[in-house]
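We read letters as residues; the fold follows as tokens. A sample entry reads:
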Amino acid sequence: MSTGAVAAIDLGATSGRVILGHVGPDTLDATSVARFPNDPVQLADGLHWDVLSLYGAAVKGLREAFRAAPGIASIGIDSWAVDYGLLRGGRLLGNPVHYRDARTALGVERVHERMPHPELFERNGLQFLPFNTLYQLAAEPADLLGFADTALLIPDLVAYWLTGQARAEQTNASTTGLLRVLNGTWDDELITALGIPRGILPPLIAPGDRIGELLPAVAASIGAREGTPVTAVGSHDTASAVVAVPMQADAAAYISCGTWGLVGVEVDHLVLTPEALAANFTNEGGVDGRVRLLHNVMGLWVLSEAVRTWERQGHPIDLPTLLDSAEEVTAQVPVFDVNDPRFLAPGDMPARIDEWCAEHGVAAPRTRAEYARSIVESLAQAFADTALQAGRIGGVDVRTIHIVGGGSLNELLCQRTADRSGLPVLAGPVEATALGNILIQARAAGLVTGSLESLRDLVARTHAPRRYPPRA
């Protein structure tokens, strides 16, 4: 084995990147060659993703990657979950609807009329989230859904445009609510019961499998050699991130922290217990057949949306300065429930925090620094509680909490999570999602070998995390 190069397209809910990875038995380097915004578009009929702009930016990024490393061995794509594009005859029927759009409430009502959540949990193993794909599909106009011949989740849609092959990668398919968790196949009985055309769901594919080769026109446009493969990775970004958590899975919890905080443990079996149902935990597919037992916590979305509110009000915010000021706050601040549904949609987060505080009889923050500290403390408490709960439900003796993703750079959040959990926090790598994407491609290309444990050992040797011990 020798060192080689792969390219990762990593699409997040607020931005996208193309990452060039160099990988070998003792090498794991990731260099960002393109970064671009992912701004939703509000139209008269709802909130949408500008997926064509995302694809165009990703192609430009690939062009830069192949210019820097002409011998790239593979391309892999990951993104956020649940959202999809509808196609007919290979043509997109409209910009995908954003999971924060209000239409999902209608889908929830329609689905639960036919099958309540406890019964769904037995079939798909998922926590209740009102924007899961099955609820979104149930909210689609019947004539549009009947006209479509294919539904592709976002990374599968990008892969289709690159290769012409329509596939559904399993880790992301597991978030739709339409996969039967006991056998990992589309749940035809559920799909029929919900009135969803079975034919629109493409064949499933596993991480590490080849989706297809670049279409000749695509290869020519980005300077790639003909026959360059597009490889299925853990296309749900959290699935890729968990690959690159340098943890001992039998003794640790992970938090993939960005717009969302995905808090959980990795296990080798489904956990469909009454306790998991009552705690609203989810069983999502992981790479190599692992199960990601986790709970979605609202994440840094609350802070970033508060910052956007202040900036709209004419107060430019420098985030590092704001967090420094938050760390210096000595006044008591409220710890609020970050998972309250009021914090899901875009809008005035400080006003919503005030509203929550008024309803619960506690004093609201007074300054922007206090709001930031309140948000961090509330996230840290939710992270600590959920990590420990995940361990209890999954039978994992959690002795360490790993935080990866953008949240690992937030020193105050990492320290307060350690303090509130009473456990050491190991922070990093920041680019865990891209690294996990890169590693699965590299293993498929023969640049590295071995189990997830050996891949995580490579991450630990090349991207040592920062330790935050709990304080009294």
In short: The mean pLDDT is 96. The longest helix spans residues 368-394. The first strand starts at residue 4 and ends at 11. Residues 108 and 135 are 5 Å apart (CA to CA).
